[in-house]
Amino acid sequence: MASGANANMNAVRETMDVLLEISRLLNTGLDMESLSICVRLCEQGINPEALSSVIKELRKASDSLKASENSTT
Amino acid sequence: MAALDQKSPNVLLQSLCCRITGKSEAEVAHQFQYAVRVIGSNYAPTIERDEFLVSEKIKKELVKQRREADAALFSELHRKLQTQGVLKHRWSVLYLLLSLCEDPRKPSPRLGSYGALFAQALPRDAHSTPFYCTRPQSLALSYGDRGSGGAGAPGGLSTTVGTSGIASLGVYSLNGPSPTPQSLLAGQPPAGGTQALGSRLAWALPVGSSPSCALAPPSLRPPLGPVALNRGVRPRRDGDPNAEVTEGALVRDILYVFQGIDGKYIKMSLSENCYKMDAKVVLCKSLRDTSGRLAELGWLHNKVRKYTDARSLDRAFGLVGQSFCASLHQELKEYYRLLSVLHSQLQVEEDQGVNLTVESSLTLKRLLVWTYDPKVRLKTLAALVDFCQGRKGGELASAVHAYGKTGDPQMRALVQHILSLVSHPILNFLYRWIYDGELEDTYHEFFVASDPNVKTDRLWHDKYSLRKSMIPSFITMDQAHKVLLIGKSINFLHQVCQDRTPPGRITPASQSTHTHKDAAELLWDLEGVFQGKIDAAYFDTSKYLLDVLNRPYLLLEHLQAMRRYLLLGQGDFIRHLMDLLKPELARPATTLYQHNLTGILETAVRATNAQYDNAEILKRLDVRLLEVSPGSTGWDVFSLDYHVDGPIATVFTRECMSRYLRAFNFLWRAKRMEYTLTDIWKGQMCNAKLLKTMPELSGVLHQCHMLASEMVHFIHQMQYYITFEVLECSWDELWNKVQQAQDLDHIISAHEVFLDTIMSRCLLDSNSRSLLNQLRAIFNQIIEFQSAQDALYRSALEELSLRLQYDEQRRRREAQGEWGVTAEQEAEEAKRVGEFQDTIPKMRSQLHILTHYYQGIVQQFLVLLMTSPDQSLRFLSFRLDFNEHYRAREPRLRASLGTARGRRSSNI
């Protein structure tokens, strides 16, 4: 059971590595943590379209937020 | 990591928000709220869950960025990923990565490019009027299009729903306060709203327990309501009829309806014969109206399609009908092209998913604008189809032509294009007909009809006719007649005249015009080129035909021969013939033999100027014996005949010849009267001196002379009238017309007119039957008078010779010295003389009766003449009664003369 869980963990890690590599290739700009969150969300059946749009909007929002902060400071 | 599945999506989302923005949970509350909203409202994916497709797209994307090596690397990694069984939704992750993918060299994704594509594609489709000829295979092509579209339909339909929702939602939320269209808010049915809210709440329930939700409930709740209400939370299952339909779904539906396929919400209603929105579908009024207006396009399309489908395989519909169908197909093909552009736009939109902004997406309003022109075109086509129902051939062309008379230049161009296609076969028929004389009209579409049962001898008159209904309205009646005549002339030359001149030689114009490429232009230039061509062909062909008839077939000579022989124009010949025939014709008709008479005819020809006539004409001259009725003499049955055959028989038809024979009979009879009267006069002159010795006869003879001169006067006037006022005048008219004739029909009609005048003026038509009867009676009186006078002379001469004998005998005896006469002889002589003298009053009374009767008839005749409507006949009556001799005797004549004069003066 423990070895099974271990193997599972390995497989998960490998998968995440592969996905990170792909993400890098595609220049998505996601780091390991956000990627893993996204993968989890996807695994729960979230619409990837919606998710991607959310991420884009979040980025835009933070960019504009930073910009406004820069201008104010 | 191990607890991959344990956290709820909201928690994950919140941490994602923190991670990306780099802020604390509290700071990202607003963003989180937004994220929940978006994710929650788009639960079902809008694309197909196909890992392979997504991976292919990624590779394509890499290749597009010119990173082929990376593409290979990716496929390696993807293969590795596939071997790991950890992820359940591999495609989903990959898709996410792909959506987040950014080309380092191209910072901004494409925007509104489809709008631009449409802007280009649409005008071209809207007024493309192709001049190339497409055959119905375009139909098969469009079927294919439609088939593939149909195959993609189920997946497409289920996936469209969210697209526009996401795109517009993103925009609205970005813009801060949501600028929801008023119409959407107003038209929102409350039931749909609660339903959507319910589903939304169901989704949010687990969230309620999480701390993040508790963190910002006041800010989360208020916007949730309106958003859920307005933008329509997409129904979880597409079959749910009570949920509101989004515009995207409607667009998809409409695109199918455009092709005549029932959509999901919009269906063909058979009872009302129109596309109707499903009444159960929840939809605001403006969208419902708009889609109703758009659906009209589908109805129009169906109408046109139904017509072409029904007709294109119907061979009996004919060439014109087929080309009409072909032109409709061509228009439909243009329409399908537009639809396919729309479809690809929709497809791209789906593939792009959220990436597209609202400016470039398909909306009903946009469709309404884009399909405006095609709709006008389809409307025109549908109207045409309605109008052309049940028509074919030239009639169809007329119908199309009638639609071309519109002020709308676009519509006119469309109709004219169709008309040019439709009239193409007609023009082909026409050119074949006027240049080659061939009629290949299997389906009876051309306006010239041919009757195959007519033999060649009636070819000109009966074989070809105009089908009035098939004359296209752009060809005038006059032109149609000319066209008919041209082809008829060519056929006549070929079949009757056995003229084998190639058609090109007859009409020099035909070579240049044998190229029919300018058929379409010809239609619009009717005044000029087309008319000119028809006229030229008409002129050349007719002239050639007349030349052929005049030269080898001697038409004019034959006409003259008719006048000379059948209308007694050749005086010396007729007179001589009568001289020769007189002994023969005096016999009973039953004892006449045609060969004897033919011999006499030949003698007469040889002895007179007729011998110098053309042998061709003399050959045709013959004797004919009419039907013999008991008691008739040779005079009654004798007739000259003229044989006509070949092309000449077209002018001298059987009816014409029978009229000629009737005229001949009448003229022959009149001539015989003249001849008889000459004999009577001769007798009188010869016998006058002889009978001077018999003074008791002088009264009778005087009576004879008076009657004879009355008759001579009458017959002279009649002959004058017939010769100069009837024959010569009509002949002069005929000759002028024949000289100016442009085609054979002119000659034929002039000839008909000639014969008609002769018939009516010679009292041979039905109107003047009473006059003719009177004239016959007069003629009979002349004959009777002749026999009476003959009898008188015979007995008188006999008496005279007896008396001379008696005197001679007496003188001889006296010379011999005997008694001249014995008492016996004297008594005998006296008795004979007494007897003869007794017969004189009898003769006298007979003559008196004859005279009385004759005068009665003449007076009757004059009365009829006076009341005749024909002016020349009234003038004849003045001539006949120039000294008012008859008027003095006949009170009726006086009265009618008076009224006639009175009428005339009142007219003046």
Q: What can you see in these coordinates?
A:
- The complex is a heterodimer of chains A (73) and B (908).
- Chain A is mostly helical and 73 residues long.
- Helix content of chain A is 84%, strand content 0%.
- Chain A has helices at 2-25, 32-43, 48-72.
- The radius of gyration of chain A is 16 Å and the shape is elongated.
- The model of chain A has no long low-confidence stretch (mean pLDDT 80).
- With 908 residues, chain B is mostly helical.
- Chain B is 71% helix and 3% strand.
- Chain B contains 39 helices and six strands.
- In chain B, the strands form three sheets. A two-stranded antiparallel ribbon of chain B has the order 1-2.
- In chain B, helix 7 packs parallel to helix 15 (318-352) and helix 27 packs antiparallel against helix 28.
- The longest helix of chain B is centred in the C-terminal third of the chain and has 47 residues, at 769-815.
- Chains A and B meet through helix 1, helix 2 and helix 3 of A and helix 1, helix 2, helix 3, helix 4 and helix 5 of B.
